[in-house]
Amino acid sequence: MQSQQVEDSTNGETEEYDETREKLQMIRVKFLRLAHRLGQTPHNVVVAQVLYRLGLAEQLRGRNGGRVGAFSFDRASAMAEQLEAAGQEPLDFSCTIMVLGKTGVGKSATINSIFDEVKFGTDAFFLGTKKVQDVVGTVQGIKVRIIDTPGLLPSSSDQTQNEKMLRSVKQFIKKTPPDIVLYLDRLDMQSRDFSDMPLLHTITEIFGPSIWFNAIVVLTHAASAPPDGPNGTASSYDMFVTQRSHVVQQAIRQAAGDMRLMNPVSLVENHSACRTNRAGQRVLPNGQVWKPHLLLLSFASKILAEANTLLKLQDSPTGKPFPNRTRAPPLPFLLSSLLQSRPQLKLPEEQFGDGDDFDDDLDESSDSDEESEFDELPPFKRLTKAQEARLSKSQKKEYFDELEYREKLFMKKQLKEEKKRRKMMKKMASSTKGLPSDLSKDEEESGGAAAVPIPLPDYALPASFDSDNPTHRYRHLDSSHQWLVRPVLDTHGWDHDVGYEGINVERLFVVKDKIPLSFSGQVTKDKKEANVQLEAASSIKHGEGKATSLGFDMQTVGKDLAYTLRSETRFCNFRKNKATAGLSVTLLGDALSAGWKVEDKLIANKQFQLVMTGGAMTARGDVAYGGSLEAQLRDKDYPLGRSLSTLGLSVMDWHGDLAIGCNLQSQIPIGRSSNLIARVNLNNRGAGQASIRLNSSEQIQLALVGLIPLLRKLHGHLQQLSSQ
Predict the structure, then answer these.
(1) For residue 503, what are the β-bridge partners?
(2) In this structure, which topology does domain 94-311 adopt according to CATH?
(3) What are 617-651's pLDDT values in tens digits?
């Protein structure tokens, strides 16, 4: 029974494929008949490219190979010749062309030349077309409908008038959208300053960038003589056309925002004095008959659109003249941003400590035993350098061990006192909440002198060959103003450069003395692009160990701005466990993405903690899954100890492509003043990196290891010289 169902489904797919293949064959025959009527052979460049693309699309869609494609072409060519020779089978094809361009470039004259009759009146001194109008006719037995539009003005001050004209054009083509757009400009208008960019931007804003994806650049006055070159000699006609075409194409790419766009170019000459061939067709200086070439490019676009619709290679919604090409949002990037752990926003009086509250509770039990141990130690006098030199090796070891032990106890005592001070400050801040506002203000005014701005420490500028260290450029005061404004420096800048990359602004607000609200923004700009990053966040506590944060982010992603609204809820279900659940919604361009995440943090003790995160991001039916795991093993004397090991594992699944990455980093102390740091990165694609670094504050001779690659390079260079 199951085998019969599989066989029936296979037969159904085969019949559907055969039907699609036959329809594609008729499209191929139709195009060959069009080329035949325009006097073009299958060996024409445009005809060959269209046939190749049709065959390639058939191979991608179906299961046939190259031999079947060649057989289909031979059969289609023979069928097209037979139908055209008989002259009885009507050609079911029509094409709608819309003409756009600046005023005076010859739009109406080109339409008259296509139909070989005067459809619209033209005048060298007055504007020809004043409103949108269309004309229908036949060219070589092919039905052609052309929409003529009023001339546009390139100046920036005339763009309001252009917008009114283009909106009327958009309303006119709403019911019957064109199959192809011809953008006309003059070949003999030499301009390299992109003076047409305001006009092109206006066209893009009204119709959308997709209008350029199905447009042909038409350069009129193509029989003009090329100008003289830089040295006074006449330049070639082909070079003249290439340079002018490149200028127009580059301007269209910038207006469309797609530097990969390559619009075909066709040349047109409408003057009656243009050279003609024996058939009366106008011929350009390069020997090309421009009218069949222009019509063939237009018809080819319509044929390829029909093939795409048949093979469902590209969705083109009906009712839209120029459907936008939507780009898939970068779901892995958005998911990675969502999975990042963000610290909880706290009130100013709660920010005396950097660590978590229950981390302090975990430390209390261990620190209480050693609180008075430092005070009970006998007196100890530190030796001088000369006295240390007279000690033996065993005495030095005992001396430095005792010194290190006392330093650790002293630092532990300081940390304990700092924690007590933080708790006292929190209690004082909470106790002043109930006082009247006038009383608290009086206490602040009488408490001490007025706040005086003080200079902040100088920035650490990158190394430079300049004798002058320009730190004075970045000096600023730390005032009592709540807005914190700082410059953003480029640490890898050039010499004699100002070094400013942008500006950073931060401020913390308090709403109703209970809700913290932070704002931070950073704007960086160079000669080519600008990046904006803004963040607004707030946090609300609702119960013991529970808090919900809400944030809004805006950042530059490529050439677009991404707007993200996120929310997270944290709760401590156990003393050593903290869980987080979050949601986010991101708008990037015209794509809306939504995601969720779950995070769990387990603190076993002071030394070991484990963080697990997982989530998903979806947009337009596409889903990306990801997760990470991070385990951290710290020194038993953390934060005083130098031993630290971290193991990280990340997983990302998008479009069935599974990416797994693992990284390990470990810092091992060697003696009192040396550390060994090892890093290992590896992914499931076989790529990885391993590095070992040894640093020391006393064994300066370790720096001599850096001479090994230099000596090796010098030795190899000497060997090459000796061999020569």
Answers:
(1) 487, 523
(2) Rossmann fold (3.40.50)
(3) 999 888 999 999 999 998 877 767 778 899 999 99
